[in-house]
Amino acid sequence: MPETSGSTGRTPETHVIDFRAAEQLLNARDPRGAVKLLDGVIAVHPENTAARLLRARAFFAAAQLRPAELEFTIVLEREPDNSFAHFALARTYERQGRGDQAKRHFRLAAALDPNPQYLKAARFDESA
Hints:
Blueprint: H1 12-27, H2 31-44, H3 49-61, H4 65-78, H5 83-95, H6 99-112, H7 116-122
């Protein structure tokens, strides 16, 4: 009999399916549906950084900027060299009108990964 998570009857395989379904929902522009699936995954696997990053992206897509900021911050506490998380957190700050904080994370993203999108957003040609 497969191992289940508490009284929910959910198996580790079910959590993987939920994660993949959440990716599809986000790609299909249903970020709120993605968040709902990921809430269950993260409740059982709070250490899962990939699920937290996906949930942060879903929060951002749903314009839930404060929860997105919190999730991106958790990801960066665990993976300080995650250039995408820095870039996404910067975009979150930018949408909140927090330009100085955004610029710092855009520059960190670009320093970690010379992705042209990150370099453009970092605006290194401007004064610090």
